[in-house]
Amino acid sequence: MQFFSSHIASLRSRFFAAGIILALVFSVVGGPPVQAGALASQAPTGLPGAAISQGAAVQAVEMNASVRSLADAPASPFLDPGLEDPLFAKTPPGGGNLPSAPDAPVLSTMPAAALNFESLKYTDLCGGSTCGQGFPPDTVGDVGPSDYIAAVNTAIAALIAAYYVFVIVMLAGLRFVDPFTTGVQTQRRIESWFAKGKYQKRYSFVPLTHISTHLQWAVIAAEDGRFYEHHGFEWDQIEVALKEKEQHKRVRGASTITQQLVKNLFFTTHASYIRKGVEASIVPLAELLLGKKRILELYLNVCEWGPGVYGAEAASQYHFHMPAQRLDREHAAHLAAVLPAPRRWNPARMNDYSAIILERMGQLGR
After folding, report:
1. CA 231 to CA 292: how far, in whole Å?
2. How far apart are CA 168 and CA 26, in angstroms?
3. How far apart are CA 28 and CA 340, in angstroms?
4. Of residues 216, 235, 229, the one with CA closest to residue 299
5. What does the alpha-carbon distance between residue 203 and residue 186 come to, in Å, rounded to a whole number?
């Protein structure tokens, strides 16, 4: 019975505390102040367990904090340590000792300074340490433009990182696996959907040993004379091309075989500064992961040599009706001559440029 009596007394004390809190809120929000003593006069006297536990006290203070105007209101008798109200007095009206739980502070002794209305920190209730941390109600959950910008930047960085991971994996695989298609081949296929006529793709990948050495050196002489000497970029040719552009002259191609291979594998023929920049960042990876021999083998097999014609084997069969392994110097020079514009130029009509390529091959000892 004593156990149930103590619990009933505790519940009664909590109900009275809640009533005092509601009266205080109504007095601040919608009506004249209501004195705690007036409410207490309506309550039965001599209630056992009238002391409020620390948990109820914290709840009372937190509820008061939600009323923002309370910070500017006059000091409430609810928090006045000098008020001797019959309900909150240290001794009951009939005299005698007031039963209370150990370390349970009486609400009338709680200092009003315990609540910091600026940051909603509750300090004095737990011995000077910070019990909780909050924020003003008008700033909770606010998302500013800087948060959106940070989210967008994070997403862009993740996409860029994922793209380069994809490129590295692809290059590592291309060292051993022949590609079944390329970026330029995909571009031509899509363009054919909107063009007149039938598109027929001719593509046959063959080992470098099945490609005539005359064609190998003809392509090097025509496209990248120092292929075996540089590490992906021909800086002298790039400087010449930039000077010609400043003088509004016809800009010559300064791309190396490695750069053209990267363009064929991962990009399209549409030129832009963004594509050039990304392409330049991939070239060192291609040089490192593939090596010169594999770069030349891949380029000779995937470069465009006519409408729907890709690779040396398909080009040799399409233009000269012979395998790429049987090409002589003359045929090889004519094939290499059309690489700058393979869909517009015909090898049989490239006598002048093919003669220049043959001269360059002689300078290279080929």
Report:
1. 9
2. 69
3. 85
4. 216
5. 13
What distance in Å separates the CA atoms of residue 205 and residue 237, rounded to the nearest whole number? 30
Q: What is the pTM of this model?
A: 0.61
User: What residue has token string 């007036």?
Assistant: 38
What ranges do the domains of the chain cover?
2-110, 178-363
Residue 226: HSE in the Cβ half-sphere, 13 Å Cα cutoff: 11
Q: Which residues on neighbouring strands pair with residue 309, listed in sequence order?
A: 202, 306
The residue behind tokens 């027929």 is: 200
> Using CA atoms, how far apart are residues 215 and 278, in angstroms rounded to an integer?
30
Classify residue 51 by its DSSP letter.
S
- Which tokens belong to 68? 């923002």
Residue-wise pLDDT tens digits, 189-245 = 999 999 988 999 999 999 999 999 999 999 999 999 999 999 999 888 777 767 766
- pLDDT over 90 at 83, yes or no: no
Encoded tokens for 142: 């606010």
For the chain, how far is it from start to end, CA to CA, in angstroms? 113
**Length, in residues, of the chain:** 366
Contact 323, 313 (CB under 8 A): yes
**Where are the extended beta strands (E) located within the chain?**
115-116, 121-122, 202-203, 304-306, 309-310
Please report, for residues 25, 80, 119, 125, the alpha-carbon distance to residue 76 in angstroms, rounded to integers and kept in the order given: 11, 6, 21, 18
The C-alpha atoms of residue 361 and residue 366 are separated, in whole angstroms, by: 5
CATH architecture label of 178-363:
Orthogonal Bundle (1.10)
Which residues neighbour 244 within 8 Å (Cβ) at sequence distance 6 or greater?
250, 251, 252
Kindly state the tokens that stand for 28: 């601040």
